[in-house]
Design brief:
- There is one protein chain.
- The chain has helices at residues 3-27, 43-68.
- The protein is mostly helical and 75 residues long.
- Helix content is 68%, strand content 0%.
Length: 75
């Protein structure tokens, strides 16, 4: 994958991960999240892991869009 195409995937997905994190963590307090009902993690860890999860999902969507886009003439 070319560097330009990589940036077409990573930059928009980074921005959308920031928006998704802001929306989700405005509604959900990370300290209220219990994994398997009893494991409680630190707030900073959940903020970071949530952001990277949203970034991964958005990057997958961006990469799929780039993959399905028609190739430009001359490439």
């Amino acid at each position: 994958m070319q560097w330009r195409a990589l940036m077409w995937v990573l930059w928009p997905s980074f921005l959308m991960a920031g928006v998704a994190s802001a929306i989700v963590f405005a509604l959900v307090d990370p300290l209220d999240v219990a994994i398997f009902g009893y494991i409680r993690l630190e707030r900073d860890f959940l903020y970071a892991s949530g952001f990277f999860f949203f970034w991964l999902i958005a990057a997958g969507a961006s990469a799929l869009t780039l993959f399905m886009a028609p190739a430009a003439d001359g490439e």
